[in-house]
């Protein structure tokens, strides 16, 4: 078996290597909506705290169209609290229940617990698709 060790992989033209038959995340976000603060992110220009349990994520680099994949997870509201059901809603206005269509640079996240809209401590999201 051979071992290849490298520090940097570039295309023959000196640019980024193209992945074949694979998809990499183009955006990742770890967000604490209670503070609110971005804990760690990739390709995130900002997060707007729209309301309780609702925020809008802005990407630094645009996606090629609005048909990208968004994956989201969240949990934990307060210490000592029994396990509640935490939910994400994507591209929805929590106060009206209406759709808020994503753009190539933004998507909306809503979070709630058993009692309604809630700012959660551990919000994670990622976007896969093609950059513009």
What low-confidence regions span 5 or more consecutive residues with pLDDT below 50? none
In angstroms, what separates the terminal alpha carbons? 39 Å
What is the count of DSSP helices, taking H or I runs of 4+ residues?
Answer: 0
Give a short account of the largest sheet: 5 strands, antiparallel
The number of strands is 9
Shape, per Cα inertia axes = elongated
Percent of residues in β-strands: 35-45%
Helix content percent band: under 10%
Mean pLDDT: 88
**Number of structural domains:** 1
Instruction: State the secondary-structure class.
Output: mainly beta
Q: H/E order of the elements?
A: EEEEEEEEE
Q: Short description, anyone?
A:
The chain is mostly beta strands and about 130 residues long. Helix content is about 0%, strand content about 40%.
Topology readout:
Blueprint: E1 25-32, E2 37-42, E3 44-51, E4 54-59, E5 69-75, E6 87-90, E7 106-113, E8 116-117, E9 122-128
Antiparallel strand pairs: 1-2, 1-9, 3-4, 4-7, 5-9, 6-7, 7-8
């Amino acid at each position: 078996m051979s071992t290849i060790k490298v520090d940097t992989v570039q295309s023959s033209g000196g640019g980024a290597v193209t992945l074949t038959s694979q998809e990499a995340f183009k955006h990742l976000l770890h967000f604490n909506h209670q503070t609110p603060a971005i804990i760690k992110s990739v390709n995130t220009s900002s997060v707007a705290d729209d309301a309780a349990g609702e925020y809008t994520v802005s990407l630094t680099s645009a996606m090629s169209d609005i048909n990208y994949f968004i994956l989201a997870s969240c949990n934990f509201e307060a210490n000592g609290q029994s396990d509640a059901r935490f939910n994400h809603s994507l591209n929805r206005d929590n106060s009206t229940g209406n759709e808020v269509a994503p753009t190539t640079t933004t998507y909306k996240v809503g979070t709630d617990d058993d009692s309604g809209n809630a700012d959660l401590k551990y919000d994670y999201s990622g976007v896969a698709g093609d950059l513009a």
